[in-house]
Amino acid sequence: MDTTKENKEINKMSLLITAVAVLILVVAGGVYYILHQKQQMQQLVEQYDVEKESMEDELNELSLQYEGYKFQVSNDSLVQLLSTEQAKVQRLQEELRTVKSSNVRRITELKKEIQTLRKIMRNYVIQIDSLDRANKQLRAEKAQVVKQYQQATNTATQLAKEKEKLTERVTLASKLDATAIQVHTVNGRGKDVKKIKRMEQIVISFVIAKNITAPVGEKTIYVRIRKPDDDVLVKSRADVFTYENKEINYSCKKLVEYTGEELPVTLYWKIEEFLSPGEYRVDIFADGNLIGQKSFRLEN
Asked: What is the pTM of this model?
């Protein structure tokens, strides 16, 4: 009886020891699992910390790229689109700074959004490069057009100068020339006299030289007789003609028919005023040009 009871007690003790041993094993396994899971979680958090830093660097790079391209392009619409995308990058930067590394789901989502932004950036880079190439081509074409325009302008200027010189030469070549100019002072019988008190007329004679380039036809010859005080002898202050865009007085005039050959011309000034002794000068004009001059002297 005692032996049986003792055996039962031994069996109970064995079961208890076994149960405790199993419980210890279960607790030890649970503790190990928890510690292992905690270690894995710590490693995962550390891994996402590294990924967060990499994502932050990538976002900073994207933001700087958008900022740089905004200054590079001159298209207002494209600049607005770049600014919009840069604002998205800055929003993700702010969220990435506040999200916890343990929030695996949100970090994964942010990583996908960054990849999307990177693809968008590549598309913009392609557009910007295309615009840059087009702008370079346009600048080259503009430079070529400007160069051609300058060359054409220089050519036109040169031609204008040559035309002006040619016109001047033609004008000079077609200008009449009074040669063999003579001035006589005569009395009433047409004889030369030297003394002022005996003079009744001043006779101006000359020859218009042959000029085949000069326009032919009727021409008015004007003569100005200038006194020693530089005043002009005139019958009327209304007797004027145009010279160098001014109206000036003439002493006498004559209408002649010029054919391009030599043409003798004589004009007369009737002395009706007091003449003082001194140096006088005759200026001869035709076609608005001074064509000859001659000085003469009157003595008492």
From this structure: 0.49
